[in-house]
Amino acid sequence: MKKLMSEWRNFLTESSAHYSGILKIKPDHTNNSELKTLQAMLPEEAIRLPEKDFHVTLIHQSILKPFHKQIKEIEFPPPPPIILDDEVWERESLGKKSWAVKLINQEEMQKYVKEVMESLGSQNVNPEPERRFHISLANLTGDPHDSVR
C-alpha cells in the first residue's frame, strides 16, 4: 500500500528523484511552463537549454560515487515539490556564464538530501551545505554541461 501511495503521489506531481550519476529531480509540466516563460525574458546572448535538460541537482556525482552499488538498489522517497523563484539568477565563473532560477524551498530540499544520505548510510548527511538548489535555463553554448556549477 505504501508503494502504491508513493507511485500515486509521483503521478500527481509528475516529479520524482532519478539517479543518473547525480541525484536529480525533473520538473513537472507546470514548472516547465514557468521555466519557458522565464527563458523568454533572457538576453540575446543566452542560449536556452531544451526542456528535456531541465532538472534540479540534489546531490553531485562526486558525493554519490562511493555509494554507487547501494544507490541502484534503493527506492527514493517522493521528493519535495519544485517551488520556483520568480527571478532569474545570472552567474559567471571561469569563463562560463549561465542563467538559472533558484528554488524557494531550499530547506525542504536540504532535508530531502539528508534523508537520502541517511538511507545510504553516509556519515555526512549534509555533503554540500553551500549548494543552492536551482534549475539552469541557459548558458553561452546551450550545452547543459557548460552551465556554472
Structure description:
The protein has 149 residues and is α+β, with helices and mostly antiparallel strands. The chain contains five helices and seven strands; from the N terminus they run H-E-E-H-E-E-H-H-E-E-H-E.
Helix content: 25-40%
Mean pLDDT: 89
**What general form does the structure show?**
globular
Which percent band covers the strand fraction? Answer: 15-25%
Largest sheet: 4 strands, antiparallel
Order of strands across the main sheet: 3-7-6-5
Secondary-structure element order, N to C: HEEHEEHHEEHE
Structural class: alpha+beta
Number of domains as seen in the coordinates: 1
**What is the overall number of helices?**
5
CATH architecture grouping:
Alpha-Beta Complex
How many beta strands in the DSSP annotation? 7
CATH level 1 name = Alpha Beta
Q: Roughly how many Å apart are the termini? A: 39 Å
Gyration radius (Cα, Å) is 16 Å
